[in-house]
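Subject: sequence -> C-alpha cells, single chain

Hey, anyone have a minute? Need the predicted structure for the following. Not urgent.
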Amino acid sequence: MNFGPRLNAQALRDRRNQETTLHKLAQTQSDIYFLTCCKKLDIVPKGLRLKNPLSSSGLPEASRICEQASVKLRNVALKLCYRKQRTLTGNANTNDWRRHLNSQSKINGVERFLKDSYSTHVRRCFAKKNAKLRTLSKENILLSGLVEQGHPFITHLFKTGVERSVTTTTNSHPNNQQVINLTDEPLSDAQLSLLNKGLSFCPTTKIDDVDLSFSISRFNRRVRLKEWAHTEGISDSPQPLSHPQLPKREWTPGTNRNRYIDCFTDSVQQHLRSFLNTIDNAPTSKTDNLSKQERRALKELSHNKDLVIKPADKGGAVVLQTRENYIREAYRQLADGKFYSRQSSDQTKQVMTKIHSLTRQLGKDTQEDIKLLLPPNPNSGHFYLLPKWHKIYSLLENIVSDSDKPINNSNIISLARKYNVIPPGRPIVSGINTPTEYLSAYVDRFLQPLLTYIPSYIQDTTHFLRRLQHEVPFVQDGSYLVTLDVSSLYTNIPHEEGIIACRELLLKTLSL
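Reply:
Had a minute. Here:
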C-alpha cells in the first residue's frame, strides 16, 4: 500500500486535509451518479420517499401527492449535490497542500498518494451506489425483468464513468475509451489529459469586458423575453391555435413585470461589475484551468490540420480521425444522388429570393413576421459528420482475420487502425444563420404540440416503460414486441407526403 513520502507535522496535516476533501468529492460524485440514474429510471430512493399519513383513508390523491413530492425532493437533492461538488472541486484544485513541501520529489510522491487514495475511494463509493441501484431496480415491476436479463438500458447506466470522475480530478487518463485515436500519431500524456476533459470543456481565456457585458445584457433580455412569452400565453381556458405575434428584433420587455426576474437581473449586473473590478484579465497559474503542458497540447492539436476531432454519435467519446478519412466518408455519402445533388454555386441568394416570393402571397401580418425571421446576412448550411463508433464492431467482425479475434474493448481501436476501417458518419447540416434557421423554429412552434396527438408518439425510454406498464396486461401470452429502425430517417421522408401528413394532423387538431 502506498503511504506516500515521510512528511513533517504541518505537511502531514495538509495532506490529510486534501485527502479528506477528495474523499468527500468522491462521495458526492457517487451521490450525483446515483440520483441521476434514479431520475433516468424514474425511481425514488427509499430515504426520500414520503410516507402517506392518510394511507388508511384509501384516497389515491394523497398517495399521488406524496409520490410527486418525493420526486421533487429527489431532484432538489440532485441539485444540492451538484452545488456541493462545485465547492469541493474548487477546494480540491487548490495547491495549499504543497505549501510545506520543500522538494519536487515529495510533491510528486504526495500527488501519487492522493491520486491512489481518491481512485480507491471513488471506486468503493460507486460500487455501493451500483448495489443500491440494482436493489431499487429489482423492486420495480418493469425494471426487475430488465435487471435479470441484463438489458442494455440498465447495464449501460450501471457501467458508470467511474474512471471519468477520477480523470476529471486527478488528470489521469486510464484506457476507458473516452478518447478514440484512429490516427497513426500517438498522443502525449498532456494531449490525452486535455481530450479527456471533453469537447464541451471551456479553457480559461482572457476576459473582454465589453464583450462580456454585451453577452450578459443579451442574456438578461432573453430571460425577460421568456417571461413575457409565457405570461402572455397563460389562460385559464383552452385557447384555439392562433397566429403568434412576434416582438420586434431588439425590443426588450420593461421592468416591474416580475419582481423575481428584476431582482435576478439586478443581481447579475452587480456581480458583473464586482467581477470586472477584481478579475485579472490574463490567465495565471492561479486562475487558469489548464496546466502549461495542456495549454501546449491545446495549441498543438488546434494547429494540426491533418487531424479531425469530433464527438462520437453515441456514448460521449472523443474520436480522432485523419482529415483524409473524414473527407472520404463525407464524399461517400454526398455522392448518393438519391438525396444530394451537386450545385454549381452557392444557392443562398436564390433561397432568399424564393422566400421573399412566397411571402408576398401571404397575409400582411405574416409578411411582417417573416421579415423578422430572416437573417440580414445569411450563409449556406455547414455539413459535418459525427462518427458512429458504436457501429465499428460489426464492421470489423466481417473483415478481421481469425488470428486477430476475438474483438474486445482492449483491441478494437488498434484493429480499426490496422484494417483502416472508417466509422460511418451521421450527417448533420448546421442551420445556424441560414435563410431558414428562424423560419424552421417558427414552424416548429406550430408542429411541436401536434406530436402528442400521434398514437405512436414516444417521448423517451421512461415514457415507453410507462406506456408498457399500462398496456402489458392487454398483451396476450406468446405475443412478440417488435421494433424497427429506419435508415437515414429524415432524408428518406418524401417532402410532399411529409407536408400532406402535417396538414392532415393540423386540420384534425383544429377540429378537436
